[in-house]
């Protein structure tokens, strides 16, 4: 529930901070006083309306787990259990915060949709098939606890059936292209196996190519160098005859001879055809250019070999899947028919319940048609609601929203609503006294399940509400809002009955009505 709201520098309110209460909260005041601006500010705090105030802040107490909300899924750390503060700051653009942590308007509205219901225009999902199916299922579970097991079994089978169908479609698509896929895989395998690359081979052969390119020149130079070294014997003999130590000279000559002879041996061992070498390098270069390296080519080879095996086993897999799909289809249809028959039996009770609340709202007879469709996540049933002979698409806004209220009451009666906040903007506008009284009674009933905020111009909601707020203008023509005490409440109800000219008769009548409602 919303426990507090702060509005600063809005088009109507200069600054207000107001404590709010659970149950049925009604807001009244003369036209133009700022009632809708107040509700607009509240809705803007949840990202459901554009913010027009410099600051809007609301404090909430929510059972997050029961509502199916995990703030961490929206990037908000859950630091304060179920205590939440939402702030909207606006300068040029609006910025949104939950517990001082920034959040986008879109994500905030997604969170709010778990617990905020706003009834003003022809929107909402209460008259949609999925919502009505959920209520009908709940009615059936109340009658037969085993129905819940059938629902779970159907949901599980539906998911398995859907997954099996996707796999089968993938195999059929693969089968349509199987020959070309097999040919391509075999082509890739043949290309790599023909070359038979080895890891590091290209680099090694490039080194050999480099050596071969200078082999002739190196060998010619080395032969000449060895001849020159042989001619140095005369130098050795001359030094020896002169009595000069030539040990270092001899050592250097022998070392040089050793290096040259080793080099000649390495080049002499390069016994390969240069054309074969260049052809092998070219083949490896193609492989590396396509796959990145010899290692990646070998990985690709293994992958294509695996794919070829899979392609060859497609027929076997398809036969297996077809048998599984047939079995799942039969089970799904069987469960769907069970759901259909049980819903068919319970539908009159559902219609009876919604007509009970529709009668309170002075609506014509409500009907719900059960139409068979193809299997989907909820079975083979689609529910369509109508008012007398009118489909919901042609209902007036007043009829549409009163039907939504009736459906919410059925949901509350079946314990399928998970609480939250219900906000209504002048839902009793343009209604007769009887119709408005019916709306007030149902909102009083719903306030046992929701925290209700409603704007009203008629006296019936104020007579039944738990908390009555008055919006008015001060001497500076700025809107203010305050909760009314008993005396102020009587005065406001009297104004709503008789108009601006209050007399003792109107006050006495308002007091009498209020007393009757409280005693009733």
Give the key terms.
520 residues, alpha/beta, Glutathione S-transferase Yfyf (Class Pi), Chain A, domain 2, 6-stranded mixed beta sheet, elongated
Protein topology:
Blueprint lengths: L1 E7 L6 E5 L4 E5 L6 H10 L10 E7 L21 E8 L3 E5 L2 E3 L1 H8 L3 E4 L9 H15 L2 H31 L1 H18 L5 H13 L1 H16 L2 H9 L5 H22 L5 H18 L2 H19 L1 H47 L5 E11 L2 E9 L2 E2 L5 H17 L7 E4 L8 H14 L4 E5 L4 H5 L2 E7 L5 E5 L2 H13 L5 H16 L1
Parallel strand pairs: 3-13, 3-14, 8-12, 12-13
Antiparallel strand pairs: 1-2, 1-4, 4-5, 5-6, 6-7, 9-10, 10-11, 14-15
What does this structure look like?
The chain is an alpha/beta fold and 520 residues long. The chain has 4 domains: 174 residues, Rossmann fold; 161 residues, RecF/RecN/SMC, N-terminal domain (Glutathione S-transferase Yfyf (Class Pi), Chain A, domain 2, Up-down Bundle), CATH 1.20.1050.90; 93 residues; 36 residues, no CATH class. Helices cover 56% and strands 17% of the residues. It contains 17 helices and 15 strands. A 6-stranded antiparallel β-sheet has the order 2-1-4-5-6-7. Helix 13 packs parallel to helix 14. The relative contact order is 0.13. The model has no long low-confidence stretch (mean pLDDT 88).
Q: Structural class, from secondary structure content?
A: alpha/beta
What is the count of helical runs?
17
Mean pLDDT: 88
**Could you estimate the helical fraction of the residues in percent?**
55-70%
At the fold tier of CATH, the topology name of the largest domain is: Rossmann fold
- Over the alpha carbons, how many angstroms does the gyration radius reach? 43 Å
From the spread of the alpha carbons, the general shape counts as elongated
Strand order of the largest sheet: 2-1-4-5-6-7
Tell me the major beta sheet: 6 strands, antiparallel
Q: CATH homologous superfamily name of the largest domain? A: P-loop containing nucleotide triphosphate hydrolases
CATH architecture descriptor name of the largest domain: 3-Layer(aba) Sandwich
Q: Spans with pLDDT under 50 lasting ≥5 residues?
A: none
| Ends apart, CA distance between termini | 26 Å
User: How many β strands by DSSP?
Assistant: 15
* Integer tally of domains: 4
CATH class of the largest domain: Alpha Beta
Give the DSSP E fraction (strand runs of 2 or more residues): 15-25%
